Amino acid sequence: MLWWWGLFSTTTLQSGEYGGYRYVYLDAQGLYSKLMKTQNEVSFQLKLQGIVPGSEVTLVMTDPRTTPQDKLLARTGFLISADAEPKAPLKVDTIAKREVVVAEIKAHPLFAYGKAYSALLDYTKEHKTTLHLPTLEIYDHSVLRVEMPLTSDQVTEVDTR
Questions:
Q1: Would you say 147 and 57 are in contact if contact means Cβ atoms under 8 Å apart?
Q2: Nearest Cα to 147, choosing from 137, 139, 132?
Q3: pLDDT tens string 51-71
Q4: pLDDT tens across 77-99, in order?
Q5: Hey, is 38 helix, strand or coil?
Q6: Structure confidence at residue 7 (pLDDT)
Q7: Is 18 within 8 Å of 98 (Cβ atoms)?
Q8: Distance, CA of 54 to CA of 149 (rounded, Å)
Q9: Residue 132 phi, psi (nearest 5)
Q10: How many Å apart are CA 81 and CA 20, to the nearest integer?
């Protein structure tokens, strides 16, 4: 069972230019482990509006290692098509193409997030840099992909409307 859930899966790392994403989201504050409630609200609103969601996405804005739990910030939702027109309370934004390091793993969420971020932190130590935020998490069909901007001057600009 643990093998199937991905306990023994390894994370692959690669760098490249990725982006061009359009996503719908709601802002979330507090423990990242409780983001599912907000994601479910986005899913509910999309269903009400007749919009088909793509992969689950979360933009992690603050580092849980250095930020108090009640101050953690994220955006969570789904990728959407270019012609989708979500309405309030949903928000829409895009992420342009940018140079990133990608950690990818196929595993149950219980293991995937820890393993992906551990690989990114190992990468930052090896390259004598820090974790650059926001990271973009894309979860689809048991595969987690975490994209981290390569350098702090390439950090994704996000619209804070």
A1: no
A2: 137
A3: 999 999 999 999 999 999 999
A4: 999 999 999 999 999 999 999 99
A5: helix
A6: 56
A7: yes
A8: 22
A9: -100, 125
A10: 11
CA 62 to chain centre: 12
Q: Which residue has the tokens 């901007």?
A: 149
Count of beta carbons in the 10 Å neighbourhood of residue 145: 19
Composition of the chain by helix, strand, coil, percent to 5: 30, 35, 40
Between CA 101 and CA 55 the distance in angstroms is 19
DSSP designation for 157:
P
Backbone angles phi, psi at 7, to 5 degrees: -55, -35
Q: Which of 62, 70, 60, 64 is nearest to 25 (CA)?
A: 60
